[in-house]
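Course assignment 3, question 2. Fill in each field.
Student: A.L.
Task: Predict the tertiary structure for the chain below.
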Amino acid sequence: MALKTNGPVPDGDVKISRKKPIFPVKPALRRYLREYQRESKLPISYKELRNFSDSIPVYDKDGKDTLWETPLYPPHEIAHIHEGLKHIYALLKASGNNRIVEHKFIDRIDYCTFGNTHPFRIRIVNRLNDVYDYFYVKQADASRIYGLELEEIMSPNRVNFTVDTETLVEEHIVGIPGDVFSRQLMENPDYNPIRIAKEFVKFNERCFIMLLGDMRSYNYVMQITPDFDDFQFRIRAIDFDQEFYEGNMKVYMPQFFKENLPYVKLSMEHLTEKTVLQYQQEERSSIVHRVRIERHRLAALRDVSQHEQLSPPANIATLKTQLAAHYKNQDYYSCKTMTDIIELNIKNIIRQVKL
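Answer field:
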């Protein structure tokens, strides 16, 4: 990671491919998902939810188009769809125990036309106290699933999802969208800017090692936890569509996106180069610790992904060349897949932590 506390501010010229394909979930990955309890038999599929006749746009409280739509289903299908979605929620939250949805109802279904997987966002409400929750139904994409699994293994965050054939269901990740936080809350006098900057440095380092791309501020959330003498901050990715696909090294470094400029400036203002290096080392040590605990699961995921073509050969060639120059490590030239690159990233940080 190249975040510096002096010198020019990143210019945010990183380009993202807009035509990343949806990669199918192949039998080897399905076996992995089954082994680690990530597979369920779902009563409603993504394809069924796509069978709506019309839709109306969703606007925010200021009248701005949110890029979400509310689909309109034939009246005779609504009860079946809602019951199926309630059961999916029970599978996600309570291993299929429908008692948790006895007093819940589906309040709304929204569909997003922006993004690779065109997700459905489901709002479910408890009629006894009006407490609500969300979950998402998406088209299953192998690279996104690998991103979710790497997040589970290598990050401090737990992710909850399940897959059935071509349908992926994800739990809602609670937090304040990164762009909203930077505009409205970053300068809150009760928040320690050093803690925010520290978390951004760690998040940047983690994305780079995991090859999680496109972490613009609207693709992650800020979680704020009051402590006994201060507030703690955690940045969590919510979009995993760009897991190890792009060939540009900067795509995997949030610091280079113009949308993250407020976080970069905050880091440059409040951190020294020495503290940046310290926080990077802390994050690498944490990743090594988690990798050692989950080494068998990580090895199983590697064995599955190793034989899949999840990125064009040209992207792999470009990325390994850039990383070889960045790390001054010729071993990257021998990498044949994105999985090889991540494995070498991990080996490198293990060596660094041992020094």
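Instructor remarks: The CA atoms of residues 86 and 101 lie 6 Å apart. The chain has two domains: 27-139, 176-354.
Grade: pending
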